[in-house]
Amino acid sequence: MAEGKKSFLLYCDLIHTVSKMPIEKAGELFIHILKYVNDENPVTEDLIVNLTFEPIKQSLKRDLDKYERIRNKNIDNANKRWYKNNATACDRMPNDTKNAVSVNDSVNDSVNDISLKEKGDANLEKILTPKNSGKFSDFNIQDAPPQILQSSFEAWTYATDVELRKKITIDHVKDKWLQFVATNKDSPQWYNSENEIYTHFKRWITKQKFEDGNTKQHNKGGGKVGVSEARTTALQNW
Fold this sequence. Notes:
The structure is a single chain. This protein is mainly alpha-helical. The protein folds into 2 domains: 1-128, no CATH class; 135-237, no CATH class. The protein has 11 helices and 2 strands, in the order αααααβααααβαα. The termini are far apart. The relative contact order is 0.08.
């Protein structure tokens, strides 16, 4: 077993072999497996236990190799993220990693600030400027980035009734963004970063009820026939 690894996998189809063994032999096999994964290098003269254990042993080795590859990949990704120039709390780990090593992607801004200070980061002054925190109005945000709209669209459709989710479009999300901006522009709520505002919006939109027909259809030439009620209200409030 790898150092620090506290678990291993036994596959369900093993029952087809073990169920044919006498209970005593199955018990010996299980003890043999536990000794093996605890690095006790067990040895048995029992032919049945040996024959049954060998494919399990090979499976455990394959799983361990896979674990080590993913673990090393996660460590490399974490190191790249840590030493990346101009890194901020908004940066995220790559999406192609698994959970072999648990890395919390929502690192607290203050922890990052302290770590950067210890490393003598050249951009520390810029990162610690007051613009990194404040009320909604302090950030002067007008439009949400496309990736934020897309992820919010996916979250909203997932949280919406099955019959309605197919009718939600990215334009509906844009309408909700304008509504969110109009609602929060005078809010006293404090945000630690711009990314925290986008996270707030993503949570907020999943609680919004979708009503079919909120947004007017587009004409064949690509221009809008009309403007949605939510967008009109938001612009008036702005």
